[in-house]
Amino acid sequence: MKIKKSKVTDQSASGQQGAEGGAPKKKGIKFRSKVPGVMITQYVEQMPEDKTTPDFTRKPIGLTIQEGKLAIFKAKVIGEPKPTVTWARANGEMNDPEKFQSKFDPNTDEHTLEIPNVSSDEADTYKCYARNEFGKAVCTVMLNIIEVGFKKKKEMAKSKEAAATKADPTEFRKMLRKGKKKEEKKEGEIDEDVWDLLLSADKKDYERICAEHHITDFRGMLKKLQEMKREREEEQAQFIEHLSNLKQIKVRSEDTAEFELDMELKDPNSQIFIYKDGVMVAFSREMEGDVKHSLKQVGKKFIFSVRNLSAEDAGLYQLDVGGVNVFTSDLKLPPVDFAVKIQEVKAEERQDAQFECVLTMPQPEITWTLKNNPIETGEKFEITCSEDKLIHKLLIKDCMPVDSGIYAAIAGLKSCSAWLIVEADKGAKGKKKERKAGVAGGGVDLAKVAAEQQEKYKKDMEAALEAAKKAQLEREALDAKAMSDEEEAAKRRAAERAAAAERAAREAAEKAAREAAEKAAKDLADLEAAAKAAIEAANRPGATPEEIAAAEAAKAAAEAAAAKAKAEADAKAAADAAAAAAAKKGEGDEDDDDDEEGKKKKKKKRDGPLVPDTVIDDDASGYGGRGRHGRGGRLGDSDSDDLEGENEGDAARSARAARRAARAKAKQALLVEETVTDPGVQFSSGLEDCKVMVGQPTELVCKLTKEDAKGIWYKDGVEITAETEGMTISQDGVFHKLLIPSVSEELGGRYKFEVEGGRKSEADIFVEDPPRFDGEDLEKFAAPTIIKAGKRASFKLPYLGKEPVKIQWFHDGEELAPDTNIQIFNEEGHTCLVFTGKLQRKDTGEIKIKIKNEFGTVEAVTQLIVLDRPTPPLGPLEIIEASASCIEFKWRVPKDDGGSPITNYVMERNQIGRNTWKKYGEIPGDAHYKDTDVDHGRRYCYRLRAVNAEGISEQIETEDVQAGIRAYPGPPSVPKVESAFNDCINLMWTPPTNTGGGQNILGYIVEKRKKGSNLWGQVYPPEGQLIKGKKFGVTDVIEGMQYEFRVAAVNMSGAGEFSTPSEFVFARDPKKPPGKVLDLKITDSTYTTLSLAWTKPVEEKGVEDEAKGYFVEIRPAECIEWNRCNVTPLLTGSFTVKCLKSMAMYWVRVIATNDGGDGLPRDLDNYVLAMPPPVRPRFTDLKIKSLMVVKAGNSARYNINFEASPWPNVTWLKDGVPVSKRITVSNGPTSSQLLIPSAERNDTGVYTILVKNIVGQETFSIEIRVTDEPKPPGPVEVEENVPGTVTVTWTASPDEKRDDRLHYMVAKRDSTKKTWHTVADRIFNNKYTACNIMPGREYRFRVFAKNDMGMSLPSESPKWLIVGKKEKFALNMPETKSCDLDRPPKFLVPLRMHTAPEGYECYMSCAVIGDPAPHVTWYRNNVSLNTNTNYYISNTCGVCSMLILRVGPKDMGDYMVVAESELGRAECTTKLTVRD
């Protein structure tokens, strides 16, 4: 099945051109209807009242139906007067009324076009026209036909055409020419399939698609693509509500390619079609089975899949809805293979891993998958490709265990895969692991392999190119041979046309010669008549001498004229002959040019020798020279004529003019067409593309090689003349210019300048219309807008620029959006921002407008200033003076002056204790005041308000200020001892934060006190005044004594409070640093800690003083800087370094310190490894299972604990071979786990764990048996070989060969009993002999298969019966014997093994019989427990029990119960295990 799709052959806008039933086209105003896809043409400029142009309320919908069905198009139109509706098709006529039935239903106002029994011939583009006298409306609809079955007529026609082609070579040549002409494409033209690809592609893929299809006009492509997108969206709007997330078709897994899109249909029942290279493909709605193509819908998402990929699946895939193309994607499956495949990579946790591969031919990208899920570049993965497109890499960043799995690389139809194994970090749990350096994987010299592949690919391409060239030459030879006959026929036709042209030229030359001879004879006759009249006048009586001289001159002139006329006639005849020959040759050339249309331009040719160029003007026409004189200096004929004519009259001048015209004709006839031997006019410099802004001038300039060359300007193929509006054409020598004073959008396009000879130069003018502002409007906008608080503001700004534009308004950098307080009005060329709410002072800020379109962005900034009252003044007060007579203070100005300067302040004063406030009026704008109206000792409070042009601020109330009371400063900081010597101690401190109400500090007082004394003594400076600075050296000290110091600040009120005393300091010279510590050693170590111990250094007077503390420093082996482990000095000779990196190497040293500084460090002799002391691996589990039975299909998990130092390497082996990748092994510092996710029978084997470190190794083996419940045995047969016995045989169970531990159990039941009882177990063969078979009873046997997992269903034998012979019954009474009930002790129920948690109860019990009753004794480790009060022992009716209330480790051991009597002794043992 394939589909016949209609093609839009009318490339104009819908409704503008096309078949309209033969009606003449009317010019009018064209515009689009509100209904998408409808174009309206209005014939009149002003519509009369109550009249409208036609329009569609419902336009026809495109159809895709199967051939043979009925196609119906329906439309509804409106308009006043009522329009008439007609139908037309793009290719073909609609004259058949039976095939095309146009109807109208007055009840529904529907116009319909019915096409019954449609076929592929009706697949076309149809147009519906609605017309009235004021205009017309037109819309386009497509009809696609699905062809079904084999078309016999078409195939017969094709076969006949092929046969005719083979029989007639001429027809074959015609087909070749026809095909070649059809394949030719205009310059810059783009295929329809490429447009479909661009419409569905992302913008980032435009460049790649253009490069693949050789599209160079990128800007033109984008412009047309935008128009096509708008048209496509209008078409899609008929069926689709929303379309997004278009993902191109790609190979997603090893055998599947997919593309997907999100699409919301208006009608869920709309038909969806899939095409491959224009042919419809069948698809399934579900992705199941072996269906080749499937389209799955999940919500709004549609996923199309192509499964079982092959090379034939490559092509262009299209998805259509209701005949409208929605999505197009190109699937490429290049014949590429892997030269180097990806290899397995093992990486450590938090290390990067990389897969690499090399292709056999360049590919820009390949598909990477993890567990069949596509991978894309992101935070986790990075996909890269080399410059030659051969080496492809996948980098997995920061590998974690969850990243393990199978990774695959897919290129075309080939793929390769490999495992990524991430080994878990062995660090302590709960700690954040650090990223590890390096990249796992790689190691292969891919560059060398890629270079080899590149060279091989290059050779293959050269061979292919050579083969293509050879095939091209063969095709050209065939074309040349096919065209030879036609060329010969063309030459014959050209010769015939040349002969006819020669005859016509000869006749024309003869006619021209006769006319010239007749005119010359007439002129000569006129001269002779004039000369004769002059002679007669001179001969009459009384003639004057002048008349006689004139008569002689006229006679001479007549004779000369006759001679010259004869010469000119001869020259004319020669010229006519030459002209005829030239005409004959020119006709032949024209015929040749007609036959070779489009190949070469016409050239001028001539016969005979070359003659010099002749210049003909009004004054000079001599044959032998240039201008008025010839080369030899001989005076020309025209000069003679001029001299002769000085004294002549009108008749003579007329004769001379006639002679001059005759000579000009003769010389013109002598001119022949000259062969062009030079290259003609060339371009020295051509036109250049330019970008111009709308309204700006521009100029196109080109330079030619000749000044006299002429040319024609074209715009988009239309000639530009001097009358063309908006353009000026000029020439300045060899420069030709086209000036456009003001460029508009309509003037953009391609311009061409073409000169004689066909040479041309082209250039594009790209008109850009970015947004911009008028200078005056921008200046007005930039001026700040000042308004009062509570008012509204608006900002208006006109702009210029091409629509559409994006307009954004910003306030202090934040974009504004319309809301209840903001409105934005945007119109074409104008925008306005309005603040509808009442503005406040906080709204003051920068207002910015940003306008953007496709050509650029422009911004403008202005300021919005909202005036308001100022904020209150700021405190606290700075007291300048607070004396008994005045209070002088300052305050800080308001934080915000409200947009206007502060003019003054309003102040009020309140005396503490009163309720009234005294107003001081307005104070000038200086924030300072001196209040002299105060009473000594009173406290006052002030209120301050700031005043500006907008009003008065809120008030600020100050703290209380007292008049006349001293304010002392606060205490300075604790004095710090800078240095100490025998005779001087240097101190420093910082000033107090409270200086006493803002007063200045005049100086400081320092006091000292000896240790053990209660008296402070003042330290006086040498001058005996206050200490001015913040440092002081105390010299009044005694060597060896300890002192402490304190400081007080002094202001105008006096000395303030003293500071906290300093630490005690000795008055002595600085101490010497201590020596090196002794006996530095390591006492213990773990993976994260290191314990050190040392001895204090030896004190040496004057060289090394006593150590007061110690610092421990470490340095990793890879670093050069030491890190100090403790901040404060250690007082003891030991320290534990923590937070070490496991198994890392460190250098360690210890430094002793005292008041004199740090001593020399003591280093360890060797580096230290962060690890515990070496321990040989050993397993720590008390009881380790050596056998594990697992049911097939279940998971098997085996844990084992061990200890080893350093951390060991753990390896698991199965039957001596490393375990497979399917088995997961998880290793920790002290344990290992083996996990089989889904156990299979072939997983059965002996698994060995090997724990190995530098000290030694240890192994342990466990047998894991994977089995399942056995299948029952086969049929059971019973046979009697010996009387009283039968042999039971059965067929083996199917699992017997796969399970070496499988055995059988036999059960028997006879007719006298109702239950089955086991007669045999653990039978490893297929036969059992049953004894004691009684005659007369029916027996049945059941056989069960058993293994470690359980027992199968039984296989039952048929009934077995032995008929017994009846014998005479005889009763023999046995002799009675006395009954003896005595029996030795015996355990009926033994003790069982017990495992109890520590601290819990443990209850042991057993049952014993015996007559007489035995004595029972309990033992633990052979020690009697009967008298131990910690155990509760009881014996009731033979049930012996013991209870342990709280089990502890001391209770572990072997327990035994002994029952003794006079008849014997019985024992029963068990074991108690206590777990933590």
Beta-strand content: 35-45%
Let me know the average pLDDT.
80
What is the helical fraction, as a range of percent?
10-25%
Count all strands and give the number.
Answer: 100
Overall shape: extended
**What integer value in Å does the Rg equal?**
59 Å
Distance between the termini: 78 Å
- Largest sheet: number of strands, sense, barrel closure: 7 strands, mixed
Written account of the structure:
With 1476 residues, the chain is of the alpha+beta class. It contains 10 helices and 100 strands. The strands form 23 sheets. Strands 1, 2, 3, 5, 7, 10 and 11 form a 7-stranded mixed beta sheet that branches. Strands 51, 52, 54, 55, 56 and 57 form a 6-stranded antiparallel beta sheet that branches. Helix 1 crosses helix 2, helix 6 runs antiparallel to helix 7 and helix 7 packs parallel to helix 9. The radius of gyration is 59 Å and the shape is extended. The N terminus is likely disordered.
